[in-house]
Design a protein that fits this description.
seven-stranded parallel β-sheet, 13% helix, mainly beta, 58 strands, 756 residues, 10 helices
Length: 756
């Protein structure tokens, strides 16, 4: 067994209980594996959210020099074993340290330490029925089973509460390991691992619940790789898998996982650990995951050799949370599963985490009855005795079917045949789709069906197919998952049983549309254009501006960069955008749409003024251009423009015209007098009496004032009553006269009567 507990970990990476929340970055392969030129080969260092990297040593390599090199470049040794070391890097030293290690001949590969998660959710406790045991026929298997060889099931999880009454005596506390706290006490402080352990091995007695193995001589080996939040990392999980194998585990239960980025392969640290365990005789069983997604993009579920388990409800339908895909081998009950919980309690959980230990428990029953069974034999037995669900044969939801403990025990132990018939051959191979269209960076899954010479057909596990792509620049394929790499057309082929099927794949743009097809802009103004692409699969998406080829047909009028158009000078041009062999044009007019005056109608009295603003409108933009306008008045005696203002010079109406860059706007100015009034319209005077009427003017702007100057006075009979220039009326002789006051084109009259 590799020693890991005594090592000093600098930092533990925390993960979330909800499962598969984060993606796996690309990993770094040593440069010397490809080229002797190490000075420019690796300029793009893979970034990692955890800040930790796993370094795999070559067999027989000296570790001392490699560790020294890492330390000299700012890396901190977080943990190490005889095959790996775990480094924690500061951001400033990532590139230097990884570049140096990538050239080290003792290093086989370097990859980020990714996050992994437990795969269940807690619901109401104390549910009264263990419906799952009946569905997989565990009670019948207890009756039929013979042999009671000791079996060890490693539960790599949050630990196990070994003090629980239903687990006492069933937990190997002599060899348990806590990778989180770096000690030898793997007691559960979260609950998930205890729940998983109880599903496998809770005592069969009159109290509590029963585990799948009944009273067989099965022990749980708790290896705590997830913390109290159900969080852990790939380095600890891989270490635990190899330690479980070294400690003699017959079955390894992995109710945990992590999601890979689109198109990425499973990390070698994890695949090597699984292969190590299988080579040492341990069957590895893993949860499919709870994302209702394709499990082929999750690890360890998609690693070859692992028995991947989906979950069903009591209606034998796929649970709404369960993952699916070509990696699924079996299914088991995963809804409302009652099991042990820390503190002597019982809890009810749902998830593929609960389905997985049901399969691990059946495998342990088989191993107890026939300890000589190999990993391959155990695998075949479980698959070939499963109860078929869904469509006939293997499918992506249930794999080969519902695990069946009774049929597995009853089956002939000498049978080592693969679940696929070996006495017949494949007559033809068909894909589930004749053509695959993808958007850039998108992915799709191809499922193959083998038609056999005996007249039957069977779904083919993606990992059993030899996949190839004609042009990796267009699309790549792994385990039936096709990922777009670039625009174009290619062919994906899948070979199985001596037959090959080809599927055309295209990543094309069928339509390109711009958010704006015509723009009117002002000089030095900017506008942003977004493109929407319709792809061959009829999906639509906004195109990143940096992925588009932009061009202006006249840079003197307008320029463009990454979708941002900048107007330069007056005129018109086209902006041309090209993406995925499709082109769209945007017309750009750097011209004034219209000229607007504010206000456009002005009412003033002579001698007064009003501010004026002239704005040039360019489509959706505007610009104040008052100072640059040419002005013309139709009657300068009425009003003129001066220094940003309209100035009233006299009574009347006029039109001022403002012209700017070929566009004009007119402003009407009204300075007319609306009304002229006297304080009296009739006045009786005696001879030699004087009187001066008050005259009030109402102007077009609504203002009213008493007028004393500028009035023209006249008398109709000066011998009766005369009037002076200032409006003073003097009675002269008996009789009548009319005094008239003229102002601003208006006249008001006062009748004067002089008594004898």
């Amino acid at each position: 067994m590799r020693e890991t507990v005594a090592s000093s970990r600098c930092t533990k990476i925390l993960l979330a209980l909800t499962l598969f929340g984060l993606s796996l970055p690309a990993w770094l392969t040593p440069a010397h594996a490809f080229s002797d030129d190490t000075t420019t080969k690796y300029t793009n260092i893979p970034k990692n959210e955890t800040g930790e990297y796993i370094v795999k040593f070559r067999n027989g390599a000296s570790q001392k020099t490699t560790k020294l090199r890492a330390a000299n470049n700012g890396a901190t040794l977080a943990d190490s074993s005889d095959q790996h070391m775990l480094l924690r890097l500061q951001k400033t030293s990532d590139e230097q340290a990884l570049q140096s290690l990538a050239t080290d001949p003792n290093v086989e590969y370097i990859e980020p330490n990714i996050r992994m998660y437990a795969t269940a959710s807690i619901e109401d406790a104390y549910y009264s029925e263990q419906w799952g045991l009946d569905q997989i026929q565990a009670p019948a298997a207890w009756e039929a089973a013979s042999g009671d060889s000791p079996v060890t099931v490693a539960v790599i999880d949050t630990g196990v509460d070994y003090t629980h009454p239903d687990l006492k005596g069933r937990v190997d506390t002599a060899n348990d390991i806590d990778y989180v706290n770096n000690d030898r006490d793997a007691k559960d402080d979260e609950g998930h691992g205890t729940h998983v352990a109880g599903i496998i091995a809770a005592k069969l007695n009159s109290q509590g619940i029963a585990g799948v193995v009944g009273n067989r001589n099965v022990k749980i080996l708790p290896l705590k790789a997830l913390d109290r939040k159900g969080e852990g990392d790939m380095y600890d999980v891989a270490t635990a898998i190899m330690d479980a194998a070294d400690l003699g585990a017959d079955v390894i239960n992995l109710s945990l996982g992590a999601e890979l980025e689109s198109g990425q392969k499973a990390p070698r640290t994890l695949t090597d650990a699984v292969q190590y365990a299988m080579d040492k005789g341990a069957l590895v069983v893993a949860a499919a995951g709870n994302e209702a997604a394709n499990t082929d993009r999750y690890v360890p579920a998609s690693i070859p050799g692992v028995i991947t388990v989906s979950a069903v409800g009591a209606n034998m339908k796929l649970a709404n949370f369960s993952n699916y895909g070509s990696s699924v081998e079996l299914t088991a009950p995963g809804e409302n599963i009652l099991s042990t919980y820390p503190g002597g309690r019982y809890a009810y959980m749902s998830g593929t985490s609960q389905a997985t230990p049901l399969v691990s428990g059946v495998a342990a029953l088989l191993k107890a009855s026939d300890p000589g069974m190999s990993v391959k034999e155990l695998t075949n037995r479980l698959l070939e005795t499963a109860t078929d669900l869904g469509k006939t044969g293997r499918d992506d939801q249930f794999g080969y079917g519902l695990v069946n403990a009774y049929l597995a025990i009853q089956s002939d132990s000498s049978s080592t045949e693969d679940p696929e018939p070996t006495t017949v051959t494949v007559s033809s191979l068909k894909a589930d789709q004749s053509k695959l269209s993808l958007p850039p960076n998108g992915s799709g899954t191809i499922t193959l069906t083998a038609y056999l010479t005996n007249g039957t057909k069977s779904a083919v596990a993606a990992k059993d197919v030899e996949w190839q792509t004609k042009d990796k620049k267009v699309a790549v394929v792994e385990n039936g998952v096709v990922t777009a790499a670039g625009f174009g057309k290619t062919t994906i082929s899948g070979a199985y049983g001596g037959k090959t099927v080809s599927i055309p794949v295209e990543i094309t743009v069928t339509k390109l549309a711009a958010s704006k097809t015509s723009l009117t802009m002002k000089p030095d103004g900017t506008a942003t254009v977004e493109l929407t692409a319709t792809y061959g699969d009829k999906s639509k998406g906004t195109v990143a501006a940096g992925d588009v080829t932009w061009k202006s047909q006249n840079n003197e009028v307008a320029e463009v960069q990454d979708g941002v158009i900048t107007a330069k000078n007056m005129g018109s041009t086209y902006i041309v955008a090209t993406y995925g062999d499709k082109t769209v044009k945007i017309r750009v007019n750097v011209n004034i749409t219209k000229l607007v005056a504010s206000p456009s109608k002005i009412l003033l009295k002579p001698g007064h003024f009003s501010s004026i603003n002239i704005a040039a409108i360019y489509g959706e933009e505007n610009e104040v251009v008052t100072s640059g306008v040419d002005w013309k008045s139709s009657d300068a005696k009425v009003a003129i423009y001066k220094d940003g203002q309209i100035v009233a010079k006299g009574f009347g109406t006029t039109t001022l015209t403002a012209t700017y860059r070929g566009k004009s706007v007119r402003i009407s100015v009204d300075t007319r007098l609306k009304q002229l009034q006297a304080d009296v319209t009739r006045k009786a005077l005696e001879t030699d009496e004087v009187y001066m009427p008050e005259i009030k003017a109402t102007y077009s702007d609504g203002s009213i004032e008493q007028v004393e100057e500028g009035i023209t006075w006249t008398s109709s009979n000066a011998s009766v009553a005369s009037v002076e220039e200032n409006g003073v009326i003097t009675a002269k002789a008996a009789g009548s006269a009319t005094i008239s006051a003229q102002y601003g084109g208006k006249t008001v009259r006062v009748s004067i009567t002089v008594a004898p």
